[in-house]
Amino acid sequence: MSDFTNQVVFITGAGSGIGRATALVFARAGASVVVSDVNQSSGPNVVSQIHQLGGHALFVACDVAVPTQIEAAIRHAIDVYGKLDIGINNAGIGGKYGRFTEQTQSDFDQIMAVNVGGVFYGMQFQIQQMLTQPEGGRIVNVSSIAGVRGMPMGAPYSASKHAVIGLTKTAALEYARQRIRVNAVCPVYTHSAMVDELIQQAPAMEEKMRRMIPMGRFGQPEEIAQAILWLCSDENAFVTGQAIQLDGGLTAG
Ligand SMILES: NC(=O)c1ccc[n+]([C@@H]2O[C@H](COP(=O)([O-])OP(=O)(O)OC[C@H]3O[C@@H](n4cnc5c(N)ncnc54)[C@H](O)[C@@H]3O)[C@@H](O)[C@H]2O)c1
Predict the structure, then answer these.
(1) With a 6 A CB cut-off, is 46 part of the ligand 1 pocket?
(2) Contact 13/37 with Cβ under 8 angstroms?
(3) Does the beta carbon of 148 lie inside 6 Å of ligand 1?
(4) Is 63 contained in some domain?
(5) Less Cβ crowding at N or C end of the chain, within 10 Å?
(6) Nearest protein CA to atom 36 of ligand 1, as residue
(7) 82 within domain boundaries
């Protein structure tokens, strides 16, 4: 396994699901993990779990829909650890399950503020710091299979996740010479609070969702976290601008 000792990782939405699994995977690999989340009870719990494993972590509250909060959170991480090696822009919301015509302006604006604004401003402040570091840095953004395909009943979500890939590719091109690698992961349905909420909104969908995945099952947060870790490892020094599909074979067909 790659060794991330002395590496500083900042993760948004790290209190639950994929973000939480990613925080634990990096902590086990030796990194110092800045656990950031809008939820002020789940984030500290993840930090306690990391401390119990003997790892290094701190919690910083941050609503990624508010650019000044992201800036302050990243600034705090840098003040404490002196640098930022890795940014994981993972925080996201699923939004309303409904057709185009049922989505309101506030549904659309909210999802764009969190899923696109959160990633855009997160990357901006992370890149500003990485440009001051001779070793550069690595960023992984969490998109979705809905970022490479349409998602009936989830137009704002699908649009937001397509945007994440645009931000990823553009930053990868702009900063390739400054040793900043930027990639995205695109998971299919993965066990988490977000998927539980979607199933609650449309219970009849669960079996259909499972059947559309060639492997016949949802992903596990740990499986997504391992791919994120792999993208950040030095063994992957030539990989940038990619949107890696983690989908049990779905987009192979
Ligand atoms: N679970 C899936 O099936 C799936 C599939 C594809 C992509 N994703 C993406 O993975 C990411 C993580 O989702 P998850 O499935 O782990 O869901 P989750 O609900 O378990 O976790 C999301 C976390 O983000 C936090 N969060 C929400 N809004 C925030 C905000 N404004 N500021 C800061 N933190 C905020 C929540 O508090 C929570 O801790 C999301 O971007 C999601 O779109 C999930």
Answers:
(1) no
(2) yes
(3) no
(4) yes
(5) C
(6) 13
(7) yes
Cα gap 219→189, rounded to integer Å: 6
In a domain, 133, yes or no: yes
Ligand 1, residue 92: give the atom nearest the CA: 41
Q: Note down the domain range covering 76.
A: 8-245
Q: Which of 81, 97, 121, 157 does the annotation list as catalytic?
A: 157
Per the domain annotation, does 111 fall within a domain?
Answer: yes
Q: Measured between alpha carbons, how far is 140 from 85 in angstroms, rounded to an integer?
A: 11
Dist CA 121 CA 178 (whole Å): 19
**Cβ–Cβ contacts within 10 Å for residue 252, how many?**
8
CATH number for the domain harbouring residue 14? 3.40.50.720
Q: What's the gap in Å between 59 CA and the centre of ligand 1?
A: 17
pLDDT tens across the length of the chain (253 residues): 689 999 999 999 999 999 999 999 999 999 999 999 999 999 999 999 999 999 999 999 999 999 999 999 999 999 999 999 999 999 999 999 999 999 999 999 999 999 999 999 999 999 999 999 999 999 999 999 999 999 999 999 999 999 999 999 999 999 999 999 999 999 999 999 989 888 888 888 899 999 999 999 999 999 999 999 999 999 999 999 999 999 999 999 8
Q: Is 172 helix (H, G, I), strand (E, B) or coil?
A: helix
CB distance 42 to ligand 1 below 6 Å: yes
